[in-house]
Write a structure and sequence with these properties.
This protein is α+β, with helices and mostly antiparallel strands. It is about 35% helix and about 30% strand. The chain has helices spanning about 1-25, 230-255, 295-305, 320-340, 340-355, 375-395, 395-410, 420-445; strands at about 30-40, 50-60, 65-70, 75-85, 85, 90-95, 100-110, 115-125, 135, 140, 170-175, 180-185, 190, 195-200, 205, 210-215, 220-225, 265-270, 275, 280-285, 315, 420. Helix 3 (about 295-305) packs across helix 4 and helix 6 (about 375-395) packs across helix 7. It is globular and about 60 Å long.
């Protein structure tokens, strides 16, 4: 009897440990947006944006998919959905993590590696204006921002809190009902449409600006200053345009040929600091100062670096902020040193250390940082830049740039994109045990040093 009881106990324990493994190994679908095509219409007599969002979604999992869940602002009113050319059955209204879930039933199973076209028709009412979502006669803007659920004005499958990171893909955006205002987004403009070939998220602004376009080496770089800003403001705009063009040329030498997309610097009252697909929003005060200030120079340098890190090579997977925020800030600091001298770069590095010191005691490991963490941008941007500086010292700048160029080229057009895990493995192999120990300590452990 004891033998039977012992056998049953061992059998029960083995089932506990084997059943979850079997479930984990079961092939399942996983979705990734590979293209956005959005048409929006600005209202004439109401405070609501209407839009039709068409998404191309690829099954990047290992099993067939029969349903798809999209996420959008909880305020969005979804009117209709379609898959391909057919009307789709959907269920909307469930709220999870402050976002509305829209569950679509697919007409047939989508095999791994295959794509499906889905579309949502919806209305997004606004009760008030913020820096991320605003409707006003003086200008409107809709920006994506993970910390503001309402600002998720377009549907996605994966958000910044998802394991694969937020969906970013080539974008076609059409804005109707603009009247006499100027429309700004990212990518090349044709009429009321913008075509962005890099990986990005949809956004747009409307308002009144004067354009200052670069010439020669600065061709393709434009600054937008408030209408009637005056000669001094235009002079500062020209200097910022020249700076952005210099950053583009510098990174082309480090990371490979510059992408053929416009670079836009836009003076705004709300949403300053936002950057996507080569378009950067700057506080209008940056164009009124007697000279280019350090923070504006840093933001421009980071924005241009993201043409490669995130644009050409989409950033995916856990720890993406170490690349999207930290690596771009490290590259921006290198550009500041080249452009303004060693003292300017040392001042920026000192600022990074002081800024990070304020959150160091409550910060977690870099490799597990999430955009929803309150310390995310401080940690990944400032500590992340210092981390890449240590990697450069261990490996050498030329060797590091060689690996970055190769990683960007490999990630271009690859569904897996640029991941911290893949780049980390390459660097560890290149640098041997000392660099591997540095990577393990810096990425997997909380900060344990006196900054």
């Amino acid at each position: 009897m004891k033998i039977v009881r012992a056998f049953l106990t061992l059998l029960f324990i083995s089932l506990i440990y084997t059943l979850p493994v079997a479930a984990q190994d079961e092939p399942a679908a996983a979705w990734q947006v590979t293209r956005f095509d959005i048409t929006t219409t600005l209202p004439t007599n109401e405070r609501a944006l209407t839009a039709r969002a068409q998404l191309t979604v690829r099954n990047v999992g290992r099993g067939p998919g029969t349903s798809l869940t999209l996420r959008i602002s909880p305020k969005a009113e979804v009117k209709a959905a379609s898959v391909g050319e057919a009307t789709a059955t959907f269920r909307a209204g469930d709220i999870r993590n402050e976002l509305q879930l829209v569950r679509l039933t697919l007409p047939g199973a989508v095999a791994p590696g295959a794509s499906v076209n889905v579309a949502l028709d919806y209305r997004l009412p606004l009760s008030g204006n913020t820096g991320f979502a605003a409707l006003s006669p003086a200008g409107s803007q809709f920006l994506p921002q993970p910390s503001e659920p309402l600002s998720l004005w377009f549907p996605v499958h994966s958000t910044a809190a998802s394991p694969r990171g937020a969906d970013a893909a080539p974008v076609r955006l059409t804005i109707n009902g603009v009247n006499n205002e100027t429309v700004i987004s990212s990518g090349k403009m044709s009429g009321s449409s913008f075509e962005q070939t890099l990986n990005a998220q949809p956004f747009f602004l409307t308002g009144s600006w004067d354009a200052s376009e670069g010439t020669g080496e600065a061709r393709g770089v434009t600054a937008f200053i408030p209408k009637g800003g005056g000669e001094e403001m235009r002079k500062r705009a020209d200097e910022l345009v020249t700076l952005a063009a210099a950053a583009r040329s510098y990174y082309a030498g480090l990371l490979g040929t510059a992408p053929d997309v416009p670079v836009r610097l836009v003076a705004v009252r709300r949403g300053a600091g936002f950057s996507e697909g080569g378009t950067l929003l700057l506080d209008a005060a940056a164009f009124r100062r007697p000279k280019v200030d350090a923070m504006s120079a840093l933001l421009i340098a980071e924005s241009v670096a993201r043409l490669w890190i995130g644009g050409v090579a989409p950033v995916r997977g856990d720890g993406g902020g170490v690349l999207r925020e930290g690596l771009t800030r490290y590259l921006a600091t290198l550009f500041l040193e080249k452009q303004f001298g060693r003292e300017a770069a040392d001042a920026e590095r000192a600022r990074e250390r002081v800024a990070y010191a304020t959150v160091a005691r409550r910060d977690g490991p870099l490799a597990r940082a999430s955009a929803l963490d309150p310390t995310y941008y401080n940690s990944t941007g400032n500590k992340g830049a210092m981390f890449w500086r240590l990697v450069e010292r261990a490996l050498g700048q030329d060797a590091l740039m060689t690996q970055l160029r190769a990683a960007i080229q490999k990630a271009s057009g690859n569904p897996e994109g640029l991941t911290l895990a893949s780049l980390r493995a390459v660097l560890a192999e290149q640098g041997g045990a000392p660099l591997k120990n540095l990577l393990d300590q810096s990425l997997d452990q909380p900060t344990d040093m006196d900054l």
